[in-house]
Amino acid sequence: MAIERRSRQRDAILNNLKMRCDHPTAMELYLSVRETVPNLSLGTLYRNLAQLEESGMVLRIKDGTFDRFDGQTQPHAHFKCTHCGKVYDAYSLKNDSLKFCTEDENISQIYGFSLILYGKCKSCDKAV
Length: 128
Ligand SMILES: [Zn+2]
Ligand SMILES: [Zn+2]
Known about the structure:
Blueprint lengths: L1 H17 L7 H8 L8 H13 L4 E4 L4 E4 L6 E5 L5 E4 L25 E4 L2 H6 L1
The structure holds zinc ion (2 copies).
């Protein structure tokens, strides 16, 4: 029973993340999931996020301020607007700008990558 409730909460967290593309912080996610799971505690959310991250179902983006979370787990880069702080997905990188290989003497295997581009988003551009 307790396990069932726990996995239901984890599913609610995961579904919430998969349905959005704004890379919420844990607190933003908490407030949003609470709308469907009112008894969710912040500790449970953190615990579930850590489990989901460990099992590769969720990505944690460390952008220097708050950790953000991403339900899209296929490799992609992120774009952070330094004006409004929003984090967007960036899929359209030119192939030749991203070449990862194991030729460097210290690299044996590459499992993934984490890349954050910084700049100004289009809606901030329009606002000025
Ligand atoms: Zn912006
Ligand atoms: Zn993303």
